[in-house]
Write a structure and sequence with these properties.
317 residues; alpha/beta; Rossmann fold; 2 domains; seven-stranded parallel beta sheet; five-stranded parallel beta sheet; 11 helices; 15% strand
Length: 317
């Protein structure tokens, strides 16, 4: 089997290895592949591994040797699934690898918003503590999470990991989920979407992006939130109407936001949410701990093994 990874750098910039995948065939790894390079690099591939490279109908029609596509990600919107199905190409994604890491990032963002460790460390480093006449001070309000309400939009694997941590902090947890027939832990209360926005002290987004929920963080729903509430988004940038969020932050309709994703990635240098004091932004790295990326590569390796053994797993068609 000829196995080609078209854009492997972000998943493995060199601190991990590809041996779990390499054992299944002749492996060629490219850090990054531009659209004009895809055909030449993929034309002899039996198994193609991609993260963000776009495999549309036109390119799939040219890849005569291709039998299986594996994504180095959970999402697969960069692949023309219908075209793959038409050509009998199996498509497998990676599910569940990042849940602990993303849940950790939710609280990294939240704790920076509530405790402002960064600005207080900077203050100490600049000798403000050494020069203080008091033994203690704070440069912003400090917010205790115990007793607050954590609202979770999307109660999948990541949402449930977040819920566990929130409960350990002594928070009440409320949530919405698309499929309300699925079993829900007894310590999580399912609520309506309006209740979620109105009652949450912290609202964190964990639903996949669909046509129905695109821009669900908008002027109307933001107006329902408490002025003391925080928004956290480690899901998809498109869940947020960014102009509406900017206006809400500047008007102090909510207390702050922590975002690991934006609608355009990388963002333009003049992105409208940059340099807003109560808006923290990290570069879509919630998933990217070493442990998480190692699990990702292992899942892809197992997907390939399943394909070769005729025991398909994580198939999206």
């Amino acid at each position: 089997m000829n196995i080609v990874i078209l854009d492997g750098f972000v998943a493995n910039p060199g601190d991990l290895n590809w041996e779990g995948i390499r054992q299944h065939g002749n492996l060629q790894v490219y850090d990054r592949t531009n659209e004009p390079q895809i055909y030449e690099r993929a034309k002899n591939a039996n198994i193609l591994i991609v993260n963000k490279c776009v495999l549309d109908k036109k390119i799939l029609a040219r890849l005569d040797q291709l039998q299986c596509i594996c994504t180095l990600a959970t999402g697969y919107n960069n692949i023309d699934i219908a075209a793959a199905k038409e050509r009998g190409i199996v498509v497998c994604n990676a599910v569940g690898y990042s849940s602990p890491s993303v849940a950790q990032q939710v609280f990294a963002l939240l704790l920076e918003l509530t405790n402002r460790v960064g600005i207080h460390n900077e203050s100490v480093q600049q000798n403000e503590w050494a020069n203080s006449i008091d033994w203690s001070y704070w440069k912003s309000p400090l917010v205790e999470l115990s007793g607050k309400t954590m609202g979770i939009y999307g109660l999948g694997k990541i949402g449930q990991e977040v819920a566990k941590i929130a409960l350990a902090f002594g928070m009440k947890v409320i949530a919405t989920r698309k499929n309300r027939t699925k079993p829900t832990p007894t310590d999580i209360e399912l609520v309506t979407i309006d209740q979620l926005f109105k009652e949450s002290d912290v609202l964190t987004l964990h639903a996949p992006l669909t046509k129905e929920n695109e821009g669900i963080i908008n002027t109307h729903n933001l107006s329902l939130m408490k002025s003391t509430a925080y928004l956290i988004n480690t899901g998809r940038g498109g869940l947020v109407n960014e102009l509406d969020l900017k206006n809400a932050l500047l008007k102090k309709q909510i207390a702050g936001a922590g975002l690991d994703v934006l609608s355009q990635e990388p963002p333009p240098k003049d992105h409208l949410l940059l340099n807003i004091p109560n808006c923290l932004i990290t570069p879509h790295h919630a998933w990217a701990t070493s442990a998480s990326r190692a699990r990702l590569i292992e899942i892809v390796a197992n997907n390939i093994k399943g394909f070769l053994d005729g025991e398909l797993q994580n198939i999206v068609l």
